[in-house]
């Protein structure tokens, strides 16, 4: 194990550059998947004829496919139908679709957990279905969604490492290149990568706990 040379300034800079790509892909995917999951989950909750059923089939299909397969599809299959995506865009598309499907279930379950009595009371007081959904159901549902949503975001951040298979220059890709210089770098480089993942995920967990306390 060669810690001194493994953590040379050039190697550390190179690894951190990969980590910045990881954070960029994760951040964009989190935002997009949250928007997509919220829309799909809300539409499924409303049980619109046909729309809800079609979305349900799509969500179940995506949720039961390996994320790695979706990444490969976005990078190598879409060009066959004229959609060419670079490694970063392919990773973002794949992560957004997969995590969006997962988040849609969290949103749908969170909204469904609100007692029907509150909905009936709101409707009887003169609020429309849309107003009831926006002012009564969504605010309470979002509070209950915080823990599972943060857990899903943490999983998304870790799942970015799968994009190494399409040569996305993220943390694990750069770590692998550094390790390729000498196998004596393996433990220190992987330990550094683990620490970087841990710090970000731990901060997300702390943020989730504060949000839970705030909205309790």
In short:
With 216 residues, the protein is mainly alpha-helical. It has helices spanning 3-6, 9-46, 51-63, 67-77, 87-112, 116-124, 129-159, 171-179, 186-215.
Can you describe what's shown?
The protein has 216 residues and is mostly helical. The chain has a single domain, classed as MetI-like fold. Helices cover 79% and strands 0% of the residues. It is built from nine helices and no strands. Helix 5 packs across helix 7. The model has no long low-confidence stretch (mean pLDDT 87).
Describe how the helices and strands are arranged.
Layout: H1 3-6, H2 9-46, H3 51-63, H4 67-77, H5 87-112, H6 116-124, H7 129-159, H8 171-179, H9 186-215
Helix pairs in contact: 2-3, 2-5, 2-8, 3-5, 4-5, 5-7, 6-7, 7-9, 8-9
Give, in order, the helices and strands.
Answer: HHHHHHHHH
| Quaternary structure | single chain
Low-confidence stretches: none
Beta-strand fraction estimate = under 5%
End-to-end separation in angstroms reads: 48 Å
Helix proportion range: over 70%
Total DSSP helices: 9
Total count of domains? 1
CATH C-level category: Mainly Alpha
Structural class: mainly alpha
Extended strand count: 0
Query: Architecture, CATH level 2?
Result: Orthogonal Bundle
Overall shape: elongated
Which fold does the CATH topology refer to? MetI-like fold
Largest sheet: none
| Average of pLDDT | 87
């Amino acid at each position: 194990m060669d810690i001194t040379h493994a953590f040379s300034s050039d190697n550390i800079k190179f690894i951190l550059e990969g980590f910045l790509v990881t954070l960029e892909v994760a951040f964009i995917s989190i935002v997009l998947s949250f928007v997509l999951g919220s829309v799909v989950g809300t539409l499924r909750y409303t049980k619109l004829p046909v729309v809800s059923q079609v979305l349900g089939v799509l969500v179940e299909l995506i949720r039961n496919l390996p994320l790695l397969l979706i990444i490969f599809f976005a990078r190598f299959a879409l060009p066959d139908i004229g959609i060419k995506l670079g490694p970063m865009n392919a990773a973002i598309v794949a992560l957004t679709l997969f995590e969006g499907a997962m988040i849609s279930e969290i949103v749908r379950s969170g909204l469904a957990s609100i007692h029907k009595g509150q909905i009936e009371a709101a409707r009887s007081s003169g609020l429309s279905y849309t107003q009831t959904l926006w002012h009564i159901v969504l605010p309470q549902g979002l509070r209950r969604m915080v823990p599972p949503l943060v857990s899903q975001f943490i999983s998304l951040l870790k799942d970015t490492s799968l994009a190494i298979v399409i040569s996305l220059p993220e943390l694990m890709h750069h770590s692998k290149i550094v390790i390729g210089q000498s196998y004596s770098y393996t433990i220190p480089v992987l330990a550094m990568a683990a620490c970087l993942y841990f710090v970000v995920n731990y901060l997300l967990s702390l943020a989730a706990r504060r949000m839970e306390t705030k909205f309790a």
